[in-house]
Amino acid sequence: MAKEATKPAEEIVTTTEAVAEQPEANTSAKVSTAKAGKRSTKAIKEIEEKVAKEERKATKAETEAEDEGKPKQHANPIRSRLERRGKNFRKAAEQIDKSKTYSLSEAIELATKTSPVKFDASVELHVNLNVDPRHADQNIRDNLVLPAGTGKTIRVAVMDDAKTEDADISGVETILKALEKGEINFDILISTPAQMPKLGKYARVLGPRGLMPNPKSGTVTNDVAKAVREAKAGRVEYRVDTTGIVHVAAGKVSFGAKKLEENVRAVLQSIKGNKPASVKGTYVKAIHLATTMGPSITVDNSEL
Fold first, then answer.
1. Which domain holds residue 196?
2. Are 48 and 55 in contact (CB under 8 A)?
3. What stretch of H or E contains 179?
4. Do 128 and 247 reside in the same domain of the chain?
5. Which of 20, 117, 190, 209 has the most CB atoms around it within 10 Å of its CB?
C-alpha cells in the first residue's frame, strides 16, 4: 500500500497576517483555519479584540493628555447649602448678616421675625464650649426652671404609690403595666430612690428616649411633689454633647422678646456657673440662636 504523502501544517493553514498582506490576491481564495490552537477561529478573534482594546486605550490616553490643561466642567454644578434650602428659608436668611455678631436682644428680635414656619416654633440656643466631654469634670450637665416656662404641655408620671398632686399618672403598678405593654404616655418620669430598682428592667426602653429618672436631672428624689411642680413650671435639662456644644430650647416664638430674653439669660447664667475649674482661657467659643427650621444668628460672646 503506497504511503500517502502529507504536507506540513504551515502550507495548509492560511493565516490572517498573510491574508492582510495580500488582500486583493486572496479575495477569491478560501481561508483555512486550524480547529484548535493559536490559529483557530476563536484565538484569532480574541487577538483582534485585544488589539482593538489597546487602540481604544491609546486613543483615550491621547484625549486625556490634550484635555489635561483645560478646567473640567461638572455636569451638574454643586449648589451652595443656602441654595439647596427652601424658598421661605432663603427669604428669611437674607435678613441676617452672617459677618456680624448681634447682641442678645437683637438676635432674639431677629429670630422671631425670621421664623419660616407656620406653627409656633421653638427658639433654640446653641453654645459651643471649650470643653472636652471625655473628662468627667468637663462633662457639663445641669437643669433649671425657665422663668417664663417652656411653652409645652408636660405630662408627668410619678413612680410612687402615694397620690401626687398635679401628676398626670401615678402609681407603681400602673406605670409598670404600661411599660410592660410598651406604652409611654408621659414626657417626664419621676421616681423615689426606693422604686428605682423596679425600673432597671426597662432601662433600654426609657434610656434612649431620655426618660430614665436620674438624680442629676432632679427626677430621682424623695420630694416628689416639688419635682412635679418644677417639671410643670418649665424645667429644662441640658448636657454638653460629644463635640462640646450645649443645645437648649429656651421657649416659643409666641413668648415675645422680653420673655425669651429672660429664659435665654437664665440658661446662659447656668452654663457660666458650671464652668469647670480645669478649663483655662476662653470658655465660650460661639453662641448661636435659631428657631425651628430657621436660619442661625450669631450672638456676641460677651453676653455670657
1. 153-233
2. no
3. helix 172-180
4. yes
5. 190
| Whether residue 210 is found in the same domain as residue 186 | yes
- Give the Cα separation of 164 and 176 in Å (integer): 17
Q: Can you give the CATH number for the domain in which 88 is found?
A: 3.30.190.20
pLDDT digits 0-9 by tens, 21-67 = 444 444 444 445 666 677 788 888 888 899 999 998 888 887 777 76
CATH number of the domain at 204, please.
3.40.50.790
Residue 20 burial (10 A CB sphere; 0-12, 13-18, 19+): exposed
Contact between 207 and 137 (Cβ < 8 Å):
no
Q: Give per-residue pLDDT as tens, 203-234.
A: 888 888 888 998 888 889 888 889 898 888 88
Grid coordinates 487602540 are at which residue?
55
What are the grid coordinates assigned to 263, written together? 429664659
How far apart (Å, rounded) are the C-alpha atoms in residues 97 and 99? 5
User: What does the block give as the cell for 243?
Assistant: 463635640
- Residue 68 in domain: no
Q: Give long-range contacts, CB 8 A cutoff, 24+ apart: 84-92.
A: 86/116, 88/116, 88/117, 89/116, 89/293, 89/294, 89/295, 91/116, 92/116, 92/294, 92/295
Report the domain count for the chain: 2
Instruction: Give this prediction's pTM.
Output: 0.65
Q: How distant is the alpha carbon of residue 74 from its chain centre?
A: 26
